[in-house]
Amino acid sequence: MLALSLGVSKLPSKLDWFDILGEGIVLLVALLWLTLIISSRPAGRVTEWLYYGSLLLVCSFFLDFIDEFVRYPDHIRIMSWLESLPAPIGMLLLTYGLVGWHREQRIINRQLQGRERFLRDHRLLDPLTQVYGLEYLYAVLMRDLELHQAKQQPLCLAMLNIQQFAAFNRRYGVAAGDAYLVALSEQLCSQLRASDILCRYAGDRFVMLLANTNQQQAEIFVQHVQQHLANLPALHETLALDIVACDVSTLSAMEALRQTEHALNSLKSPRYPLTMHMAQG
């Protein structure tokens, strides 16, 4: 509006259609970036950097595109400033966001590499979330319990349950439920260390094996998970999540899973998005 109010329309003979085409394509690409960020990224700090950086680029490219159709008086410099300043600031914000995105992806890749070190059979992967399933969890749990008991090191299991997930699928459709599970698994993966393992325990449950982690450290971990899961998109206000963490250092693999699941089933959670419970094994 400011550009149109201050500028004077150029005559058709003065228009450079090659510049208009080039700058129009650049503007469309910037808009596409912005749309992809909004539609594919979960809410959070990294997404905000990417969003605001792309938004400033769109602003600068849009004014540059409008500049092909209007001419401003020589004494008015504000439009030149508004056209030039957002682009470098937007590039800096976008670069900072991409660094954060790269850091997130490295964490997720490290989780995948950590899982591959022990069992490299991709048949053990859950086809939807691409995390390992119950068979892999049980095998690794038996191995780690033996190692930790021999070295007298702590070991904790954290189990997460999605309340009313079947009702969610019936109401919003299986595709919405699958998208939620994928986003949830990615958020959980990004919070784990290379030595930790995330597995899909059941349709609406995930288990995290926390190596060399005592009860106090597990509690800090669960608090971190609580903060990050609050940023999940896609109708999560209709779902409630329970997390229970158990010290299983002295148990067998079957007993560890049974006790953690029993602690989770015994929760009587109030109806708000995320509840936590810490159980001593």
Defining key terms:
membrane; EC 2.7.7.65; two-stranded antiparallel ribbon; 58% helix; Rev_trsase/Diguanyl_cyclase; diguanylate cyclase; 7 strands; 5-stranded mixed beta sheet; transmembrane; alpha+beta; Alpha-Beta Plaits
Kindly describe this structure.
It is an enzyme of class 2 (transferase). It is a single chain. Strand 6, helix 10 and strand 7 form a beta-alpha-beta unit. With 281 residues, this protein is of the alpha+beta class. Strands 4-5-3-6-7 form a five-stranded mixed sheet, with helices on both faces. Strands 1-2 form a two-stranded antiparallel ribbon. Helix 3 packs antiparallel against helix 5. Helices cover 58% and strands 14% of the residues. It has two domains: 105 residues, no CATH class; 159 residues, Reverse transcriptase/Diguanylate cyclase domain (Alpha-Beta Plaits). The radius of gyration is 25 Å and the shape is elongated.
